[in-house]
């Protein structure tokens, strides 16, 4: 029996996608081999790769003057790739700090350039995002970096910051494909696949082509956007199985009605869960209402001693992956595209029952 | 119907492994989820990861004073990681050039340090390796790098070079697990998984622990061996599905009898194919007898105009992936661990028939 898996990433995938991959795993559409056995230069795999890119472009509305790359190394790899590809030695870049993942991006950025933190939500306990229009970005900054969604804190930008002429760069790992995004506002969007796109081990980078050509010569070629763009992301052997699975997920998103439909579903799921939390005197969520993540919902019981019994009851009920990040404790429900409303309803029912018994 | 797939990588995998993965793909052993959906911090995945590492250590005979890392980025990622982790700015490193992959490692090495090419097989047309004992390695070199097997040229070192006190580093992508290797002779062994280990998207790095601690501060954390070793290769989300599949392949290698058994099988396969080439006046292989790869066997017809008809006849016979690398043409059969002797026999039969009709 399949459980409802609320893990933050790697995360639940659509069962239809897994079943399709399963049916093709020893023989992809009469080719006599698995996708994972195919040469990445074979016509079969090249078509799989190109189809996934085309679907990504179409779903996300990527303009023609942007490259779409399929790389390895996760968002953490891009924490280094961003400064190496966009900024010369000694340059300055602006960063927004909204929590744990921002901090990691900032720490890695500091290895490569002068980081100016233009907003730090420390005083709010990282429970919100800077107000629209409040960022003062130095005109000579190589870029402005922010974390669109903080997976641990459960904080998500409800708006796209204005960086003026400075290229805007975002880690969209948890948000990508969960709702429409105006790509034309960005210089670079990057995302690890293991939330809304599929398996871990693939990283999507969407980069405006006029920003290619700025890379430092010492940029490792696997992180070198221009070199990868010129090689259709096949400068070296790409993670073919992951690429194929992402393609199947993109096809599934298309079948669901695209990003407008995903946004409606995700909004409904988030409203159901936050509504249950807010209508309770027992459960709480510390994030400002307008900065709450639609994807990662942390919630706390009135006493941390109740975490273990709740997680045990959840496991009993077939709800998995609800433990909060080890750095913060409590609970967290990640409700990505592939989590159905029924899963969130089952969680809310459990929370209501648990409150009755322990409230 | 499954074909015999002679691709150089991604490459054929044991059917038993694919079938096992297939049976577990929507529900791993009663967990209610796919391996690819599991949190990498879950007890289930941590056990999968640890078991794969233990099998790798046991099969390859990795001493306790070596770390075994499971990273992303392929061997090409390690072309940058090696200098960044082992050598300060301005340091010198020695490289052996035996062909296309050596050249790529050297080119990327030059971005980070002073590369001294201590042997270059250009004069032989990259058809052999330096004679044992012929390398003069500068005593102050940070390391000596060589490519254990040139996948394109079909050249494989039949011996481990002596680097004295200089750490020996090798790209073992095609050789790893195909026969025993004395790990204790090496400072670092790295290998992309997509030949003998499983799917593309995972890179194994075996590094002597006393070499950790030399990394440059600007080393991207996804390529930082010490940081990865300290985090059990989970500094960020690892490629979990690939890691799991590598674990299944390692289990299969164990069931086959380990590396001695693999070596016997691989030697028999190589002898069958090279024997057929050498006993023919039609087919040829340009590599010196004692430097011929057991894994990648390039072969040429007397006239390149025969390549297309041969490849068409091969496809007809259910033999796939036999085209030579686009940089050299001709044919190439990659006969990794998962290629059975029957596949090589089918190829030899086809070559014999083709020669009769066209010789």
From TrEMBL, chains A, B:
Subcellular location: Cytoplasm
Binding-site positions, pyridoxal 5'-phosphate: 75-76, 101, 151, 171, 194, 236-237
Chief place of localization: cytoplasm
InterPro entries: Aminotrans_V_dom (IPR000192), Aminotrans_V_PyrdxlP_BS (IPR020578), Pser_aminoTfrase (IPR022278), PyrdxlP-dep_Trfase (IPR015424), PyrdxlP-dep_Trfase_major (IPR015421), PyrdxlP-dep_Trfase_small (IPR015422)
GO molecular function ontology, one term from the record: transaminase activity
Modified residues (N6-(pyridoxal phosphate)lysine): 195
UniProt signal peptide: none
Entry-linked PROSITE patterns: AA_TRANSFER_CLASS_5 (PS00595)
Swiss-Prot/TrEMBL keywords: Amino-acid biosynthesis, Aminotransferase, Cytoplasm, Pyridoxal phosphate, Pyridoxine biosynthesis, Serine biosynthesis, Transferase
CDD domains in UniProt: PSAT_like
Record carries keyword Methyltransferase: no
Residue ranges occupied by any Aminotransferase class V domain in the UniProt entry: 3-347
Functional note: Catalyzes the reversible conversion of 3-phosphohydroxypyruvate to phosphoserine and of 3-hydroxy-2-oxo-4-phosphonooxybutanoate to phosphohydroxythreonine.
The protein's name in its UniProt record: Phosphoserine aminotransferase
Annotated source species: Ornithinimicrobium pekingense
């Amino acid at each position: 029996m399949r459980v409802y898996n609320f893990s933050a990433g790697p995360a639940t995938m659509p069962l239809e996608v897994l079943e399709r991959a399963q049916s093709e795993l020893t023989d992809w559409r009469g080719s006599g081999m698995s996708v994972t056995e195919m040469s990445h230069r074979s016509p079969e795999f090249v078509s799989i790769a190109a189809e996934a890119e085309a679907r990504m472009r179409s779903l996300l509305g990527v303009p023609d003057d942007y490259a779409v790359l399929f790389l390895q190394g996760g968002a953490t790899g891009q924490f280094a790739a961003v400064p190496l590809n966009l900024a010369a030695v000694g340059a300055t870049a602006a960063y927004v700090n909204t929590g744990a993942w921002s901090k990691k991006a900032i720490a890695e950025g500091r290895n490569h350039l002068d980081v100016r933190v233009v907003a730090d939500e420390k005083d709010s306990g990282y429970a919100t995002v800077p107000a629209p229009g409040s960022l003062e970005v130095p005109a000579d900054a190589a870029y402005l970096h922010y974390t669109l969604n903080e997976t641990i804190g459960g904080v998500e930008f409800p708006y796209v910051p204005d960086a003026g002429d400075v290229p805007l760069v975002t880690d969209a790992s948890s948000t990508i494909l969960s709702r429409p995004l105006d790509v034309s506002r960005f210089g670079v969007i990057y995302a690890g696949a293991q939330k809304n796109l599929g398996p871990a081990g693939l990283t999507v980078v969407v980069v405006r082509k006029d920003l290619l050509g700025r890379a430092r010569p010492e940029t490792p070629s696997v992180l070198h956007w221009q070199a990868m763009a010129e090689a259709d992301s096949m400068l070296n052997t790409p993670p073919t199985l992951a690429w194929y699975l992402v393609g199947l997920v993109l096809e599934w998103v298309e079948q669901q009605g695209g990003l407008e439909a995903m946004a409606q579903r995700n909004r409904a799921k988030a409203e159901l869960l936050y509504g249950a939390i807010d209508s309770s005197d027992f459960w709480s969520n510390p994030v400002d209402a307008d900065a709450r993540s639609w994807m990662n919902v942390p919630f706390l019981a009135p006493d941390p001693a109740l975490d273990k019994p709740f997680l045990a009851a959840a496991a009993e009920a077939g709800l998995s992956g609800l433990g909060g990040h080890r750095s913060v404790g409590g609970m967290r429900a990640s409700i990505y595209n592939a989590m159905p409303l029924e899963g969130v309803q089952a969680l809310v029912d459990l929370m209501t029952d648990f409150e009755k018994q322990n409230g």
